[in-house]
């Protein structure tokens, strides 16, 4: 029996392939919401980073996390070697100019210049 629906036409097949390719491109775009930043840096003042990829702070994040959770810690046949963290240096970036803070001189309160003297 032949197919009478549009599901098996060449045009529909091309539309489905384009849809799959577009979704793959959307998912694999490196600078998307779930991807990495253009310039990875920590803010110096004001905002806190909301999301950072798992491999931004160190070169071996999976080993560090496994060690912290105690994964493979009771393996007596092949004990896990001690994990040495390979941390990355993340530069600090200033997003806006700040005005320098001007502090006044220390305020000296004299106890004899009040209507009611402060007892010592």
UniProtKB/TrEMBL annotation:
Protein name according to UniProt: Uncharacterized protein
Organism: viral metagenome
């Amino acid at each position: 029996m032949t197919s009478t629906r549009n599901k098996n036409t060449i045009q529909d097949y091309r539309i489905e392939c384009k849809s799959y390719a577009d979704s793959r491109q959307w998912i694999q775009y490196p600078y998307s919401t779930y991807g990495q930043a253009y310039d990875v840096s920590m803010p110096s003042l004001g905002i806190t980073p909301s999301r950072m990829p798992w491999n931004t702070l160190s070169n071996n994040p999976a080993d560090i996390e496994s060690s912290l959770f105690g994964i493979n810690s009771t393996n007596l046949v092949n004990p896990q070697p001690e994990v040495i963290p390979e941390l990355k240096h993340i530069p600090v970036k200033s997003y806006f100019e700040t005005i320098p803070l001007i502090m006044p001189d220390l305020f000296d309160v004299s106890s004899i210049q009040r209507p009611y003297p402060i007892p010592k």
